[in-house]
Amino acid sequence: MSPPTVVTLSSSPAPLPPVSTVILGTGSYAPAGLLTNSELSKRVDTSDEWIVTRTGIRERRIAGPEEATSDMAAKAALAALADAKLTPADIDLLIVATITPDLPMPATACIVQAKLGLPTTAACFDLNAACSGFIYGLDTASAMIASGRYRHALVIGAEKLSAIVDWKDRTTCVLFGDGAGAVVVGGSSRPGLGLVGTRLGAIGESVDLLCIPGGGSSAPATPASIAAGDHTIKMKGKEVFKLAVRAMEEAARDILEQHGLHADQIACVIPHQANLRIIEAIAQYLELPLERFFINVDRYGNTSAASIPIALDEARRAGRIKPGDLTLLVAFGAGLTYGSALIRW
Ligand code: UT7
Question: Which of 12, 28, 246, 273 would be 297's cystine partner, CB 3.0–4.6 Å?
Fold first, then answer.
C-alpha cells in the first residue's frame, strides 16, 4: 500500500488589518421643504427675533409626508459613495445613527440597505446615541474596519425630527429640523491619517432631561398617552444647555490632551449644531476664534444625528478642510450622550 500523500489546500492569506481608518467620501441631503422662523411664528407664540437671539436658527428643512428617514439616508449615502468613487457593492458594513427610525422594528439600516442595493453579506444595524450618534457610529465603524474583518463602511446620520416634535410646544418645535449626512470609512496603510482618536461617554442619570416618554416598552402607546403627546420630544432646555456646554468642552479638552495637542492646532471644529450660543460658549472656553468653527445651525436647526455629518460634508465642499488638517468633531445629546473625534485628513 502506497503511503498517503499530504494534500495542501491553497488559500489566499487573510488580509492584514489596516494601519489607520480614513474617511473616503462624504455626502449630505436636505429635504426641499423650508420652514422659516416667520412661518413658524404664525403657528406658535414665538418670533424670528426670539429664535435668532436665543438659538441662531433662521430656518430648518422639513421632509415631505412621503419622505422617510431611510429616503434621506439613502440620498446622503449615494452622495458619499460617489465622492469616495465606490459603489454599493463595495460596502460590507452599514450603520445608521438615528432616533427617528422609519419603524420601531426592523432597523432603518436594513431598509436603507435594500434601497441602496447593498450586498446581503453586509452587516446592517441602527445606533441610538441621539445627537452624538454620528460620532458613536464613526468610532464603531472605525473599530470594525481596524479589525480587518470589514473593508468599507457607510456611516449615516439621518433624522426626520419633524415627525416626533410637538408642533404646539414653542419651547422645542422651533429648534429641530430634518436631513441626513453620510461618510464612507475604509482602511489605509498610512499611519497617522484618518480617525486619530475618539472620546465617548454618557450621563445616564439625566435621561429625563431630554426624552420621548411614551411609546416604548416602559410606557406602551395608549389612546391617552397619544392624546397627551407623550410620543413627542420633551426637553428641559436650560439644564440641557448647561450640561451640553460642560460635556462638549470636556470631551474636546480630553481628546486634545490624550493626543498631546493644543486647541490652536485644530484647523476646523465641527460641533453639533444645537444652538449658536452653545457653540459660542465652547469657542470661548477653548479660547478659539468662532471662525474656526463650522456653523450651519442658522439654515438647518438641530438635526440630531444628522447634524455633524451634514456640517462635515458642507465644510469639505466649502474648502474648510485641507489635506493634512486636523478636524475636531464634538457632540452632545439625549442619553445624555457626548463624544468627540479627531480626524487627520
Ligand atoms: O441636541 C441636544 C441638545 N439640545 C440642546 O442643546 C438644547 C439646549 N437648550 C437650549 O438651546 C435653550 O435652553 C433653549 C433654546 C431651548 C431655550 O433658551 P433659553 O434661553 O434657555 O430660554 P428659557 O427656556 O429660559 O426661556 C426663556 C423665556 C421663557 O419665558 P419666561 O418664563 O421668561 O416668561 C420661555 O417661556 O422664553 C420663553 N420661550 C419662548 N419665547 C418665544 C421659550 N421658547 C420660546 C419661543 N418663543 N420659541
Answer: 273
Cell digits for 295?
A: 456653523
Residue 2 scores a pLDDT above 90 = no
Residue 244, ligand 1, Cβ within 6 A: yes
| One fold for 20-191 and 195-344 | yes
Tell whether ligand 1 has an atom less than 6 A from the beta carbon of residue 279.
no
Architecture of the CATH domain 195-344: 3-Layer(aba) Sandwich (3.40)
Q: Please tell me the distance between residue 237's alpha carbon and the centre of ligand 1 in angstroms.
A: 6
Best residue among 47, 165, 238 to mutate for probing ligand 1, ranked by most atoms within 8 Å of CB: 238
Residues annotated as catalytic are: 131, 272, 302
Least confident segment among 12-21, 159-168, 211-220 = 12-21
Find the mean pLDDT for residues 291-308: 98
161 lines ligand 1 (CB under 6 A): no
Residues 6+ apart with CB under 8 A from 11: none
CB 248 within 8 A of CB 282: yes
The predicted structure's pLDDT at residue 261: 97
Is 233 exposed, middle or buried, given 0-12, 13-18 or 19+ CB atoms closer than 10 A?
buried
pLDDT at site 343 = 98
Domain spans, the chain:
20-191, 195-344
The pTM of this model reads 0.95
Ligand 1 atom with minimal separation from the 244 CA = 6
Average pLDDT of span 155-159: 99
Check residue 245 and report its DSSP letter. H
Mean pLDDT of the chain: 96
> Which architecture does CATH list for 20-191?
3-Layer(aba) Sandwich (3.40)
Q: Rounded to the nearest whole angstrom, what is the distance from the C-alpha of residue 46 to the centroid of ligand 1?
A: 11
Give the residue, by CA position, lying nearest to ligand 1 atom 48. 170
Tell me which H or E stretch contains 36. Answer: strand 33-36
The Å distance, Cα 274 to ligand 1 centre, comes to 12
Q: In this predicted structure, what is the pLDDT of residue 211?
A: 98
Q: Give yes or no for residue 131 CB within 6 A of ligand 1.
A: yes
Contact 157, 307 (CB under 8 A): yes
